[in-house]
Amino acid sequence: MVASSALKNVGNGMVEAGHASPSTAERSCGSRRAADLDAGTGGRDAIIRFVVPGLPKSKLRARHRVVNTKDGRQFVSTYTPPATRTEEGVIRMVAAEAMAGRAPLAGPLELKFAIWLPIPQSWSNKKRAAALAGAILPTTKPDWDNGGKITDSLNGIVWNDDSQVTDAHVWKRYSDRPRVVIEIRTAAPPGLLSPNGN
Q1: Which positions ≥6 away from 57 have C-beta within 8 Å?
Q2: Is residue 194 a part of any domain in this protein?
Q3: Residue 191 domain-assigned (yes or no)
Q4: Which one-letter DSSP state was computed for residue 123?
Q5: Residue 195 placed within a domain
Q6: Where are the alpha helices (H) located in 71-166, listed in sequence order?
Q7: In which band, very low, low, confident or very high, does the pLDDT at 67 lie, cut at 50, 70 and 90?
Q8: Domain of residue 113, residue span
Q9: pLDDT surpasses 80 at 118
Q10: Is the pLDDT score of 18 beyond 50?
């Protein structure tokens, strides 16, 4: 978990928690776009950007249990696993610091989500260097969409509801500093894709 004192406001709605600048190797090859996002160079129109250090965790499914009441009745209780509550709490804290008291964003939004995963310790130096350069990409957990689901915790803080996200981009890359970088900006008007598929 990240303490509030560990958060560094770097201006323009951008907050970093801990040391998270990309290495030279991470800026090369296939990691270029994700490294640009990590460095906050993804564009001048960024609205909010923050970094959550540490190994990213997938959002666990809601759990269910049967509860027996004193009068003999039973009902099913649904609850969020503690690990997910902790992860969401960290993200909410960093996001609230980045928002700096502003109201949740309105309108259509674009989400960029970069997941930097640890390099397996068993890998050779050559394979490790290739992973840092983006030549080897992670195909392990967390799933790209499951990692993104943790952004449910931004509801009511960064946006009113995650249904406002109309465009999303997810990167998974290796790093010697595991972290998650989240950037939200106003969605661009249609152009690349049109409703008729042209």
Answers
A1: 83, 84, 87, 142, 150
A2: no
A3: no
A4: S
A5: no
A6: 82-99, 125-132, 144-149
A7: confident
A8: 4-186
A9: yes
A10: no
